[in-house]
Specification:
single chain, mainly alpha
Length: 262
């Protein structure tokens, strides 16, 4: 019994020690709070002060042309050329495809005096290198293009003059290339994403039109004949016609397009 009495207080002491240790170590557990102040002082303000990447800026400017002073006028010129190139990239081959069809259709309908303005250029679109621009039939299209471009430029010039700017000065508050013309409200959502797509497609169109001009001037053949796989309709492809003839022998594709110029 005496051994039990002497052993019981010792057990109580052993059981109480963890409690005392827990009370002592509890303030030490709060010490990392002082360290957390260093975590909250990370360089977050530095990221907020950096300016976002400009639309279409991929860091490629080997000549150093894109400065803060030239950004707005250069972007205005780039967008004008890009939009014009997108129209030309579609209209150039489309003219070479549809013009012979329209001429043959008019001549077969009784208009035998229909003039083929692309006969002078050998089926190529009239241009400075291909020739054909001196024909009077081309003059109305050129005059219409010059008139529309002049109206747009004059409207923009007068609006900048109303703000007290010279003809070669541009607003720094407005978006370059924004003429306020969006009847379908296409750019109402992701405006920045739409601007990126417009610039990328415009730059690709400028490269494509340059290739049109270079190919037709170097090889003296139209772009639709030089690369028929890109511009020939699927219905005129020999492989597709053979497949359709084999699948539907009763309705041959050769008889359905006989006599059509392509």
């Amino acid at each position: 019994m005496r051994g039990r009495r002497t052993l019981w207080p010792a057990m109580r002491v052993i059981r109480m020690r963890p409690r005392h240790l827990s009370l002592v170590t509890t303030p030490a557990a709060l010490q990392p709070v002082a360290r957390s102040t260093t975590l909250t002082m990370q360089e977050a303000p530095a990221t907020s002060t950096t300016s976002p990447r400009r639309v279409g800026d991929y860091g490629f400017d080997p000549l150093g042309l894109g400065t803060d002073e030239t950004y707005i006028p250069f972007r205005e010129a780039e967008l004008k050329h890009a939009r014009l190139a997108m129209l030309a990239a579609v209209a150039w081959p489309l003219q070479e495809i549809l013009h012979p069809i329209f001429v043959d259709a008019l001549r077969s309908s009784g208009f035998s005096n229909t003039y083929d303005m692309m006969a002078e250029t050998g089926g190529k679109s009239p241009s400075l290198l291909n020739g054909g621009l001196e024909q009077w039939e081309v003059a109305p299209a050129l005059m219409a293009a010059v008139f529309v471009a002049s109206v747009i430029e004059l409207k923009d010039l007068k609006s900048r003059q109303a703000d007290g700017l010279a003809w070669n000065e541009y607003r720094t508050t407005s978006q370059p290339g924004d003429f306020g013309f969006d009847p379908l409200n296409i750019a109402s959502g992701d405006v920045r994403g739409f601007q990126e797509k417009e610039l990328l497609n415009g730059r690709l169109a400028m490269v494509a039109v340059t290739c049109y001009v270079a190919v037709e001037a170097a090889f003296h053949t139209s772009i639709v004949r030089f690369t028929p796989d890109l511009f020939e309709p699927l219905i005129f492809a020999p492989d597709f016609r053979a497949f359709m003839d084999a699948s539907f022998s009763a309705a041959s594709m050769d008889g359905s397009i006989d006599g059509v110029a392509y």
